[in-house]
């Protein structure tokens, strides 16, 4: 074998022999976050409460323009997820409320616990997969796909989701286009919308 082959074999073994050295790494969000997440909180100071998230308790009032209330349990608010490659969110919908088209860095699995929603995603071939879900139904949205949920029932609706990353991010397409620092004229050009429509969107979000 030449040197390169030895190097390749070495790298392979180094990867395969990667052992799990610690039981958990409850994140310390006061430390800088790297690609693998936060540094660990001192294990001697970790208690049961670090592994319990209470932020999903109670009623969530949907009072934004979309008629939703999204409660994220990502590793920055629930640091027990740090390093485990999982996270959660609770989605509450007013009657007619929506989670507009958005994506994450990860896949997502949703379970509907109240009401009835249409959930769906659109793949890179522009094929839409969507269905009306009833309580107890589970739907999966593959990694990075654009997806959405619409409350089509006569009552408020609630769903819980889990994502296979501790910090999966939530990028809402309308927010990215009309709430961030993208100038209105560029938003207009890249969406082919009229100036009137772009200004209507910006007014809706209070950014004009
Ligand atoms: C979500 O619900 C909580 C609890 O009712 C409320 O404090 C919060 O303002 C709501 N957020 C949105 C965006 O509707
Ligand atoms: C891609 O989309 C086209 C047009 O809708 C459809 O005919 C085709 O079957 C799709 N291909 C795949 C692999 O889904």
Describe this structure in words.
The protein has 208 residues and is an alpha+beta fold. It has two domains: 1-167, Sandwich (Jelly Rolls); 170-208, no CATH class. Helices cover 18% and strands 27% of the residues. The protein has helices at residues 3-16, 173-178, 184-191, 195-204, and strands spanning 68-73, 87-93, 98-103, 108-114, 117-122, 128-133, 138-141, 146-151, 157-163, 171-172. The strands form two sheets. The protein has a five-stranded antiparallel sheet with strand order 1-2-9-4-7, with no helix packed on it. A five-stranded antiparallel sheet has the order 6-5-8-3-10. The chain is globular. The termini are far apart. Bound molecules: 2-acetamido-2-deoxy-beta-D-glucopyranose (NAG) (2 copies). One 2-acetamido-2-deoxy-beta-D-glucopyranose binds at residues 125, 127. One 2-acetamido-2-deoxy-beta-D-glucopyranose (NAG) is lined by residues 125, 127. It holds the Pfam family Cupin_1. Belongs to the germin family.
Short description:
Helix content is 18%, strand content 27%.
Counted by DSSP, the helix tally is 4
CATH homolog superfamily of the largest domain: Jelly Rolls
Query: Poorly predicted ranges (pLDDT <50, ≥5 residues)?
Result: 7-15
Strand content: 25-35%
CATH fold field value of the largest domain: Jelly Rolls
Q: What letter string, H or E per element, gives the SSE order?
A: HEEEEEEEEEEHHH
Shape: globular
Question: What is the architecture of the largest domain at the second tier of CATH?
Answer: Sandwich
Bound molecules: 2-acetamido-2-deoxy-beta-D-glucopyranose
Distance from first to last alpha carbon: 65 Å
The first-level CATH class of the largest domain is given as Mainly Beta
What number of structural domains do the residues give?
2
- Largest sheet, if any? 5 strands, antiparallel
Radius of gyration: 21 Å
Widest beta sheet: strand line-up: 1-2-9-4-7
Please estimate the helix content.
Answer: 10-25%
The secondary structure category is alpha+beta
């Amino acid at each position: 074998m030449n040197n390169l082959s030895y190097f390749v074999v070495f790298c392979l073994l180094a990867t395969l022999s990667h052992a799990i050295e610690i039981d958990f790494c409850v994140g310390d969000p006061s430390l800088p976050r790297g690609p693998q997440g936060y540094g660990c909180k001192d294990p001697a100071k970790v208690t049961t409460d670090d592994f319990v998230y209470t932020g999903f308790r109670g009623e969530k009032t949907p009072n934004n323009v979309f008629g939703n209330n999204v409660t994220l349990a990502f590793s920055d608010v629930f640091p027990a997820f740090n390093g485990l490659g999982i996270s959660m969110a609770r989605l509450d919908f007013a009657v007619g409320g929506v989670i507009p088209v958005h994506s994450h860095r990860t896949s997502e699995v949703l379970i509907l616990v109240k009401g009835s929603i249409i959930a769906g995603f659109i793949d890179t071939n522009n094929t839409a997969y969507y269905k009306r879900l009833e309580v107890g139904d589970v739907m999966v949205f593959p990694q990075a796909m654009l997806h959405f949920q619409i409350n089509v029932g006569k009552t408020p609706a609630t769903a819980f989701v889990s994502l296979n990353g501790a910090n999966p991010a939530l990028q809402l397409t309308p927010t990215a286009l009309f709430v961030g620092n993208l100038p209105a004229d560029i938003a207009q050009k890249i969406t082919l919308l009229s100036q009137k429509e772009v200004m209507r969107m910006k007014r809706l979000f209070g950014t004009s």
